[in-house]
């Protein structure tokens, strides 16, 4: 509220100063610089002209422009302003005739000489009508620029709301998908090793706290994200056989920079979801590099096709598709993602480079 009040006061002051400068230049500078004594009728006419210009400016600004010009009634807007200019000149001519301004001004500029009525000098009227339409043009320009700025602000707010809504939807899709797979793993462990299952549940509870509290924020510390990934990988290790060879390189110390939460998880989850076989040898490689404000995640894994009636087979690609979209929304022009699959050598590779502010 205070900020709005300050902006309103500044706007009022700028209008007052602008009109003061405009009036001084057009209606005071020449009379005062000539050092002549002008009659009261002259100053009355100057005040009248100045008042009409101010009234025209704000009538055009607050009424004609929003009700006609911005509603595509351009023809009526132009006709009314044209008639306004003609009425303005007509009023000045009428004022001159009533108060005999030609004779009064003759006495000011040529005192002591005989006055002879001459035909009206319409070049002065043309100058006045130009001033009138200058006031109309300035008010139209200001109103148009402000309307454009307001429309841009509304468009930006709508786009921002749409982006936030889409991000919330994408995160809501990722989180249940992650827990669904993790709970499946723990369920499998309960049939093999109860103690390991208990340990897995403890790790899962810590991860759930991270998801519940950190994903509510737009940003989280990179150190917390790395700890979360380590917990996830440790959880995945519990169900792996000796046929799976892991090459995990996560930095122990990272910079105190912020990142969108759960941004890397789908790529790492994808390695364990599609890169593990109970019958064949496989390798999973995960490497996260942190240098200055640059992050680089490289994952590489073998590919084993999941059965269509399994959760892995039915949900394949959901996490990766959502993460691509999150990257586009959160880090436009700040990321470079390369995903490649070599069917001949049977491996899937992800290379993500991320620049953080």
TrEMBL record:
* Domain Signal transduction histidine kinase internal region as annotated: residue spans: 166-243
The opening ranks of the lineage are: Bacteria, Pseudomonadati, Bacteroidota, Cytophagia, Cytophagales
Citing just one GO molecular function, the answer is:
phosphorelay sensor kinase activity
- Protein name as annotated: Histidine kinase
Q: Does Membrane appear among the keywords?
A: yes
Species of provenance: Arthrospiribacter ruber
Cellular component per GO? membrane
Recorded hits in Pfam families, A to Z, give: His_kinase
Q: Which domain of life is it from?
A: Bacteria
The record's InterPro entries line, in alphabetical order, gives:
Bact_2-comp_sensor_kinase, Sig_transdc_His_kin_internal
Q: Which UniProt keywords apply?
A: Kinase, Membrane, Transferase, Transmembrane, Transmembrane helix
PANTHER family per UniProt: SENSOR HISTIDINE KINASE YPDA
Span-the-membrane segments of this chain are 12-34, 46-64, 76-95, 126-145
């Amino acid at each position: 509220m205070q900020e709005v009040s300050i902006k309103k006061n500044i706007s009022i002051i700028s209008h007052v100063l602008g009109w003061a400068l405009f009036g001084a230049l057009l209606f005071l500078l020449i009379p005062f610089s000539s050092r002549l004594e002008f009659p009261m009728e002259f100053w009355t006419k100057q005040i009248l002209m100045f008042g009409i210009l101010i009234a025209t400016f704000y009538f055009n600004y607050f009424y004609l422009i929003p009700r006609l010009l911005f509603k595509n009634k351009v023809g009526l807007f132009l006709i009314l302003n044209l008639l306004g200019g003609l009425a303005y000149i007509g009023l000045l001519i009428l004022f001159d005739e009533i108060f005999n301004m030609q004779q009064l001004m003759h006495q000011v500029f040529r005192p002591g000489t005989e006055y002879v009525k001459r035909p009206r000098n319409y070049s002065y009227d043309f100058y006045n009508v130009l001033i009138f339409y200058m006031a109309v043009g300035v008010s139209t320009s200001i109103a148009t620029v402000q309307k454009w700025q307001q429309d841009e602000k509304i468009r930006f707010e709508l786009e921002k709301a749409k982006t936030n809504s889409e991000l919330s939807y994408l995160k809501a899709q990722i989180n249940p998908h992650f827990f669904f797979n993790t709970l499946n793993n723990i369920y499998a462990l309960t049939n093999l090793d109860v103690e390991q299952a208990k340990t897995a549940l403890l790790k899962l509870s810590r991860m759930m706290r991270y998801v519940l509290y950190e994903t509510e924020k737009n940003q989280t510390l990179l150190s917390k994200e790395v700890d979360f990934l380590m917990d996830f990988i440790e959880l995945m290790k519990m169900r792996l056989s000796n046929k799976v060879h892991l090459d995990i390189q996560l930095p122990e110390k990272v910079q105190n920079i912020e990142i969108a939460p759960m941004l890397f998880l789908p790529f790492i989850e994808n390695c364990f979801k599609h890169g593990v076989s109970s019958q064949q040898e496989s390798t999973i490689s995960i490497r996260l590099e942190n240098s200055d404000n640059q992050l680089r995640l490289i994952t590489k894994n073998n590919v084993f096709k999941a059965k269509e009636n399994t959760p892995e087979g039915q949900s394949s690609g959901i996490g990766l598709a959502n993460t691509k979209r999150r990257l586009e929304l959160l880090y436009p022009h700040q990321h470079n993602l390369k995903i490649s699959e070599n069917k001949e050598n049977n491996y899937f590779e992800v290379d993500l480079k991320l620049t953080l502010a």
